[in-house]
Write a structure and sequence with these properties.
The structure is a single chain. The protein is α+β, with helices and mostly antiparallel strands and 402 residues long. The protein has a 5-stranded mixed β-sheet with strand order 2-11-7-9-4, with helices on one face. Helix 3 packs across helix 6, helix 6 runs antiparallel to helix 10 and helix 7 crosses helix 10. The longest helix has 39 residues. It is elongated. It starts with 18 loop residues before the first strand and ends with a helix. The relative contact order is 0.12.
């Protein structure tokens, strides 16, 4: 916090110091009433319960997809209220404020309701409560151990820095537009993932069938059933370099390598055994339902994977095989043959014996593999863009508030 009580980044034309007052001097307070998750039904009156604020957090709520049978004494929104959870598992859970944008939405129990005065713009207030010094102060006021509580009396004591209403409005609108862009990117990413799921279902044969519903032109032969072990060499032996990059079970997320660390051969974990060659496929044998599997495509000869992965050196298209191993039907076959409950696992020998259905022509395998490679690349780029937007928002939040 700087001496002049101004943020480090502001809109042009604003230079005055921000004012500080207690929130209790700038708003009216009330409580939500009644209702729990057990009251939810498929259709009825829209309702916001406190869990929505930290399981699906948004600065502004416009769409509500939870419903109840309305009671006569329900508390209804009038539009532009700011709501804060009055209970949660941690202080982080309840230091979150959301604007209820629409009227006539039921505000359930365990919600603190703030109606700002004409001096405070609702979106600005929600952003202020959820970030910076106000958030830190709020978290300190949370009471309890296994469940923490926050009361309106505590909210009233929170010190709030704020500029004039015009600057508040510009800040609120800026973050609303940024949130809208993030939401759009999230929807596009969800759509891409749903499209991939649909293609996986249609481009691989259903159970006990020999041809898929959707194929590339020029292919009409039946697919053949083979053991996975026939698709490549499993766990090839190799001599480890004296120094290498180690990939453990936390290093792969989805089909992406997200981390690795440098190890020396003498001091490396005993599970560091599988030296990668370009084109090798690494299948997670522990908790295979996570589907964290990786096709090694880097131009380096010093990456060593944990024995928590089965290493497959494919004899045909690696991207096709990776796609097949990500398919839900295959994962279910693996789980049936796995041992353990909390951490189900399958050994490589049993993995090799699993039956798969593949095209007889390697060219069809290659076309399918390339198709999903490009789709995965598009999904990854979308995920990266979304992450950049979220990081951008985080940076602006740090710089645009006192």
């Amino acid at each position: 916090m700087n001496n002049r009580k101004i943020p480090s980044l502001r809109f042009e034309g604003f230079s005055d110091d921000w004012e500080q007052r207690k929130l209790g001097e700038l708003a009216k307070f009330s409580k939500g009433k009644g209702y729990t998750k057990g009251d939810l039904i498929k259709e009825g009156s829209p309702i916001i319960l406190y869990g929505r604020l930290y399981t699906n957090f948004q600065t502004i709520i416009t769409d509500v997809d939870t419903y109840v049978d309305a009671q006569e004494n329900s508390i209804l929104s009038e539009g532009r209220e700011v709501v804060v959870p009055s209970s949660g598992e941690t202080s982080e859970d309840i230091a979150r404020a959301t604007v209820v944008d629409n009227e006539d939405i039921i505000l359930g129990g365990d919600l603190n309701i703030i109606k700002p005065s004409e001096k405070i713009e609702s979106t600005f207030l929600a952003l202020t409560i959820s970030n910076g010094e106000a958030k830190k102060e709020l978290m300190k006021k949370a009471q309890g151990n296994s469940v923490v509580h926050l009361y309106n009396a505590d909210l009233k004591e929170v010190k709030l820095f704020y500029p004039d209403f015009e600057e508040q409005t510009k800040i609120g609108n800026f973050f609303k537009q940024l949130d809208d862009t993030i939401t759009l990117q999230e929807r596009e990413l969800d759509l891409l993932k749903e499209q991939k799921k649909g293609f996986l279902q249609k481009m691989f044969p259903k159970y006990n069938e020999k041809v898929p519903e959707l194929r590339f032109e020029g292919f009409d032969d039946d697919w053949e059933q083979r053991k996975l072990g026939s698709m490549g060499k499993f766990n090839p032996k190799s001599e480890l370099p004296e120094k290498f990059e180690y990939v453990d079970l936390e290093s792969v997320v989805g089909t992406e390598l997200v981390s690795h660390r440098t190890e020396n051969k003498k001091s490396a974990p005993s599970r560091a055994q599988r030296l990668a060659e370009k084109g090798d496929l690494f299948y997670q044998t522990v908790r295979p339902y996570q589907k964290n599997n990786y096709l090694y495509n880097l131009p380096y000869d010093n990456y060593v994977f944990s024995t928590g992965y089965a290493q497959i050196r494919p004899e045909s298209n690696g991207f096709f095989l990776l796609t097949l191993l990500q398919e839900e039907k295959f994962v279910n076959r693996v789980l049936v043959r796995s041992t353990g409950t909390s951490y189900p696992a399958i050994n490589s020998k049993d993995l090799e014996k699993i039956l798969i259905t593949v095209p007889t022509e390697k060219e069809e395998q290659t076309k399918i593999g390339y198709f999903f490679k490009q789709l995965d690349k598009t999904i990854t780029l979308q995920e990266q863009q979304l992450e950049k937007l979220k990081e951008m928002k985080k940076g602006f939040l740090q710089k645009m508030f006192v």
